[in-house]
Each structure stands twice: as structure tokens, then as C-alpha cells.
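protien #1 (seq + structre)
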Amino acid sequence: MTLKTTETISHSGADTEPSWMVGLPLTRFIPKVHPHSDQIIEDVHAFFLEHWPFPNERARKKFVGGNFAYGLCASWPESLDERIRHACQLFTLLFLVDDILDDMSLDEGRAYNDMVLSFMDGKRTPNRDIPVEWITYDIWESMRACDPVLSAGVLETMAPFMHAQTASIRVKENVGLKELITATALYCAGLVVPQEDMALVAPLDDIWVKHLIYCNDAWSYDKELRTAQETNPEAFTKTWTDCSSVQAFSSVSIIMEKAGITASAAKRVLVFLQREMEALHENIASEVLAKKATPEVQRYIKILEYQMSGNELWTSQTLRYNFSRCQA
């Protein structure tokens, strides 16, 4: 079932379908990748490899294998060139920061995120000897120069999203995620959708968020379980089948517990749920367009479809989640 293109295999390297995916239904949506993705990905990788303080060569290889820029180019394939570059830089930064948080306590993580946030509004001057400070600052300066209005919409979503990452109890609702992705998608497209129309398509937003969560939970489960085992090995059996509190809100863990099935079976259930979300999207999109089929609404609906297929394309291929298919 794994979605594959020539670009996917060459960029992410994970081109072997895992056994739990065999025989599952294909997505209804045809994925598309930004036409300039090759150059964008090369530039983003080169930038961070030059400037980010990776601790060692293994970490650098892991970063390239994660290929966050490819995920964005697949999720927002019709973005304006300059803006998708900004988005790739921003989300790559967020992923790298998230990796740093893995090794911090909650209090340390909150302080670190607050520090990063303080350089986003342009009011605090960065120390040019500290990469996370000046990279954060420069990304946002570029975004404001490109589009002060839509970039401000993205900025408004950052604090709720980043604060949720270090909540004392893992946030089931993925606070801020929907708003961050929506605002960035609009920024990348240079698209302004009237508020009344955004209210009209709100049910579709709920659908793609569920699709994203089901997809990411399925593919990230092994990575999160492995990380949790390494940081708290006493909480797990030698077979990795037990779950600790850090997995409490994972869809895989919940399905395993409620249905009494294995992790592989639970991940397969999540794929079927993704397909149900796609069918539901098509039904509700038809209802929305019957009420108001403006160019902006039509374009926004298409953006959501690409977000779903693009995220699935990336998660099924990135070595961030498929570490067992490419040992560093």
C-alpha cells in the first residue's frame, strides 16, 4: 500500500513496504509533490547541515533521513516557491527542536520552547553564535517580509502549539496543530479565505486532523516506543509489547488495549480509519461546494486533500519513523 514515487524513493530512502501494510486499501487521493522539490530539499538540507549543531555524524544522517522538507513539499505541492522554502525551514526547525526536547525534563523543555518563541516576533535580537536563536529569528524575518499579514496568522499559532509540546500531561487534542498547519498552508498558497467561508469548511478541518493523527500515530508508534524504552527501560518488557504512560494517548495503544490485538493489527485499523476519513471528506466537500463554490473554497478543499495524501506519503517513507528499514 505504501505510496511511492521516483522522488519519494530517491529522497527518503525507505522503499520497502513493512509487513503490516501488505494488502491494505490505497488512499483515494493522488499525491503530488512540489515541482521544485529537488532543489528546495537540497537547499534546506544544506542550510541546516552547515549551521545546526548536530552532535555527531549519525545525527546528521538521521536528519537527512527524516527529510522534513520532502514532507512539506508533498503536503503543499501547489505552494508559491519562496513560501514553501520558508515553511520547510520553519517545520524543519520545529522537528529539530522537538528532538532536543526528547532529552529534557518538562520544565527544561518549557524554558527552551519559551526561548525559541521569544525570537519569533522580531523584537529580541539573537546571539549570532547560537544557531537556534538566529535561525529562528531569520526565518520569521523572511516570512514577515514576504507577507506580513499571513505570516502573522502563522505566528499566532506558534505559542499554543509549542506550549502543548511540554504540557505535564500529553495533550490528546494536539492543541495548536490544526491552527498551525492551516495558517501555514494559507501562507504558502498566498490564499486569503473569508472567515465566513472558513467556518463553512470547518468540518473538513476536523476530518484532515483525524486523518493526520491516525496516520502519524500508526507510523510513529515504533519510534515513540523505542524512545520511551531507552529513557525508561523498566517500564517495558523485553518484547516492547507493554505500554507506559507516555503512550497513553496513542491511537495504537488505545486500540491495542480496547480490542486486545497486537500493535501491527492496531496500525492496520488506523489505515482503515484514514480511508473512512477520506470518504467522509469527499461527502462533506460536496455539501460545502453545493452551498458555496468560490475559487477560494475550492482551492482550500484541494489543499486539504493534498495535506492528507502528502502527509501519508512522507510518513510511510521517512526514515524518522522507518528506522528499522535503514540502520545508520
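ok now protien #2
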Amino acid sequence: MIDFNNKGFFKLKQNDEYAERVTALLLEGEQVIDAYKAMRDGVVFTNKRIIAVNVQGITGSKKDFTSLPYKNIVAYSVETSGTFDLDSELEIYFSSLGKVKFEFTGKTSMVEISKYISSYLL
């Protein structure tokens, strides 16, 4: 499992590569909203959960998939990008896991992701 307590997560950039890597894990009716990639790891937001992909080992053939369902979120915070600071952040508080922080660079679907999270919270 990804150690979310250690520096949160790397800077994520939009990349559809990880959407393809998790298709076998998706449930019936589950759809990918957006996918992001850091150095080797990635995060995929679906309409039901967040799937964090941790690539392990030298060859990268071993992968850890962590499923974070929206239904377990108790609160979240979004920091959008500005004029000079182009990065945005998403902090999510899960009932049993604690805080998970994602940092994004470049284009992100924060509004759409926020809507899905809110639909499970409210």
C-alpha cells in the first residue's frame, strides 16, 4: 500500500496511461473521470473511487493498486491553481485512513472530481 503519510504524493500531471492500467479493476458502470501520472506512480479518479497505482521494483512489473472509495471520505479541501502558482492540491480525509494529499501540476479536472466527492458526502 502507498505510504500516504510520507510526503503525501508526488506532483501529478494529467496522463491517460494509468486509466488503461486500471480498466481490469473497474466495476460495471464505473467510469474513469481523469488519470494522472507522477514519475512512475499514478492516480485514477473514477465516478466511484480513487485508485492509486504504486509501481514497484526495478523493472516496474510489480504494481500495488490502492482503492480509496468516495463513500469513506469525511471531508476534503481543494486548492486551485493561480496566476503564478500553477499547481493545485486536493486533501482528502478518510474515516479510517486519515489525510491523503494529492498535488497536481498543469491541467486538472478539480471541479468534476469535487462534484463526485461531494455527491457521496452530501
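The longest helix spans residues 110-121.
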